[in-house]
UniProtKB/TrEMBL annotation:
SUPFAM superfamilies in the cross-refs: alpha/beta-Hydrolases
Record-annotated Dienelactone hydrolase domain positions: 28-241
A molecular function GO annotation: hydrolase activity
GO cellular component: cytosol
Species: Charadrius vociferus (Killdeer)
Domain of life: Eukaryota
Family that this chain belongs to: Belongs to the dienelactone hydrolase family.
Protein name: Carboxymethylenebutenolidase homolog
Length: 243
């Protein structure tokens, strides 16, 4: 039962003037931001349920690009409607059936090909938030071309094949996220210890709710700011360690 799972207020957000531009790759639109110098390193950002146009996710793209990566956020909903703040949570399960974060392989392949062939990217990482965090978890089990991944508060679906990651993956959670119980995180930790043959990390940030790491500075509460900044630094550090 999904009763209003996303506590973070998406209604009263400040606007954001983007630094990047939009491109079209085969059947997918995408938002891209590049650093000012040449690099062969890239990061794919997977948006949450609010989609690729949401200001918070574009802010994250620009932030990662500022660390020296060609950064791209494709529309993994392929032009279909994202979840809207006005939608009713009673309809969420039905919406999810048509927006399955485990069915992103084809789009990921299209974007990887674009980054390789058009942008000259040799090493490619991936980060994803919420819905995108689930997609990252899935892709890190399936796609050997992704050098490293960061899954931020992706709901964990328990099944034996969820733990044999192909490349280093970092899982970020908020302590007060009521969509992901502490038991699920503990289980993830136990199973990774058992099955995982690559580097992995799990970190839980005190007092943080679902969606905490995406906020722009002006939307952060002072008490949460240090944890949000720490999570973002940890995310970038993980990427830099492997890419």
């Amino acid at each position: 039962q999904m009763a209003d799972p996303f506590l973070y207020n998406t209604g009263e957000r400040s606007r954001y003037g983007c630094l990047g531009h939009e491109v079209e790759i085969e059947h997918i639109k995408a938002y891209v931001c590049r650093p000012s110098f040449f690099t062969d390193k890239a990061v794919i950002v997977i948006h949450d349920i609010f989609g690729w146009l949401f200001p918070d996710i574009r802010y994250i793209v620009d932030l990662i690009a500022g660390h020296g990566y060609i950064t791209i956020c494709p529309d993994f909903f392929k032009g279909t409607e994202p979840w809207k703040t006005t939608d009713h949570w009673a309809d969420f399960a039905d919406w999810m059936k048509h927006h399955d974060p485990m069915k992103v392989d084809k789009e990921a392949d299209v974007v990887l090909k674009y980054l390789n062939e058009q942008c000259g990217a040799k090493k490619i990482g991936i980060v994803g938030f919420s819905w995108g965090g689930m997609a990252v978890h899935h892709l890190m089990l399936k796609n050997p071309h992704l050098t490293a991944g960061v899954s931020l508060y992706g709901i964990i679906r328990d099944s034996e094949e969820r733990y044999n990651l192909l490349n280093p993956t970092f899982f970020i959670f908020g302590e007060k996220d009521h969509t992901i119980s502490y038991d699920q995180i503990t289980l993830l930790e136990e199973k990774l210890k058992q099955y995982c043959r690559v580097a992995y990390k799990i970190k839980v940030y005190p007092g943080q709710v679902h969606g905490f790491a995406q906020l722009k500075p002006e939307d952060m509460k002072p008490d949460d700011k240090p944890y949000i900044e720490e999570a973002r630094k940890d995310m970038i550090d993980w990427i830099k360690m492997f890419i």
